[in-house]
Design a protein that fits this description.
alpha+beta, 60% helix, flat, binds adenosine-3',5'-cyclic-monophosphate
Length: 356
């Protein structure tokens, strides 16, 4: 039997283990900590290190077995988490070795899905970010120069050179304002006000670029996922490329556990649903089950009347929902699909009428 399942320390445990480890590192820097507490904190470090040693072994064994799912950064982090504290212990002894366990800060990043997204955002927005950073550098140098010219005779000890004035410029431009260097002259104070205002503008630009980059990245991810889901609904194959792109952006994916109610009879309805995977049951007078490719909830959109039946998930089900405003867009871009939906709705309505 393989030992790998026992050796494997799962992804969330990386972050969970790093927390006590790093708290122990912080605790050991408190000067007047008692000997017993110091021993307990060191024991925490040893336990965490041992767990990371097991994980490194598991990662390397998997790699040797040809499983390349663990990427190079993950393996590097696993190896550093073990070797850096070990090397520190062997080379500098027990005095400050615990500080090198600070390398465990990398562990929560190991399996994070956020950082690859951040990397893509930075790569996509590199040109704009470099532009704003250049602007920051230009403004920084310009205001440090101006402050030097204005204040050098009044406060030579603080503004006696451009590098000295640059500290004031960074603190003011970032609107941090430590208050250790303050212009005394009227002109210097006017300059301070202008620097603060431009600092707010520059940071707003950075924040705006990053926020837009993240929004675009999330939208792109949603689009790719929706595109794959839409392929499972044959009805959409009748759409041309432009309408398909529009519908992919309009559809919202949703998963529903078995037994959950998706829409209830008598409620107003503002969206219809397409079944991608799984089955739903419609509590019509003659109950029916709908499977992949089918749609429901269209009647409320067509007639504006409340839902005719309660629909619940017969199995765990993956759905795409379409809001009523986007439903109108779908109908106008594809009369063929509109006709199929209307005909189906009419048939269902007919089935719901009590037979004479
Ligand atoms: P709506 O009335 O908006 O919400 C409930 C949905 O159940 C309804 O739209 C139809 O899509 C679906 N439905 C109602 N009756 C039937 C039926 N006999 N067969 C299949 N689906 C139905």
């Amino acid at each position: 039997m393989s030992v790998l399942p026992f050796l494997r320390i799962y992804a969330p445990l990386n972050a969970v283990l790093a927390a006590p480890g790093l708290l122990a590192v912080a605790g050991l820097t408190i000067p007047d900590i008692s000997g017993r507490s110091r021993l307990a904190l060191t024991a925490v470090l040893v336990v965490v290190w041992g767990a990371y040693l097991l994980q490194m072994a598991a990662t390397l064994l998997k790699r040797r077995a040809g499983d390349v799912r663990d990427r190079t950064p993950a393996i590097t982090i696993d190896v550093l988490a073990v070797l850096v504290p070990l090397a520190a212990f062997l080379l500098i002894g027990t005095s400050d070795w615990s500080l090198y366990c600070g390398v465990w800060l990398l562990k929560p990043l190991r399996d994070s899905t956020f950082f690859p997204v951040l990397g893509r955002v930075l790569a996509n927005e590199a040109r704009n970010l470099i532009g704003v950073t250049t602007l920051f550098g230009v403004v920084l140098f310009g205001v440090a120069l101006a402050a030097y010219v204005i204040e050098r005779d009044i406060q030579p000890e603080k503004f006696g050179s451009i590098p000295q004035a640059m500290w004031w410029a960074v603190v003011t431009l970032s609107t941090t304002g430590y208050g250790d260097e303050i212009p005394q002259s009227f002109a210097g104070r006017v300059l301070s006000g202008a620097v603060m205002m431009s600092g707010i503008g520059i940071f707003a630009l950075w924040a705006g670029i990053l926020a837009t980059g993240f929004a675009q990245e999330v939208r792109r991810g949603d689009f790719v996922r929706n595109w794959q889901l839409v392929a499972a609904v044959p009805l959409f194959q009748k759409l041309g490329p432009a309408a398909l792109v529009e519908i992919v952006s309009a559809l919202r994916p949703r998963t529903v556990p078995a037994g959950a109610v998706i829409c209830r009879s008598g409620e107003p309805g503002d969206r219809m649903f397409f079944v991608v995977e799984g089955r739903v049951s419609v509590a019509a007078p003659k109950p029916v089950e709908l499977g992949p490719g089918a749609f429901f909830g269209e009647m409320a959109l067509i007639t504006g009347e409340p839902r005719m039946a309660t629909v619940s998930a017969a199995t765990a089900v993956s759905l795409l929902s379409l809001h009523s405003s986007d439903f109108q867009m779908l109908c106008s871009s594809s009369p063929e699909i509109a006709e199929i939906i209307r005909t189906t709705a009419l048939e269902r309505r007919g089935a719901a009428q009590p037979s004479a």
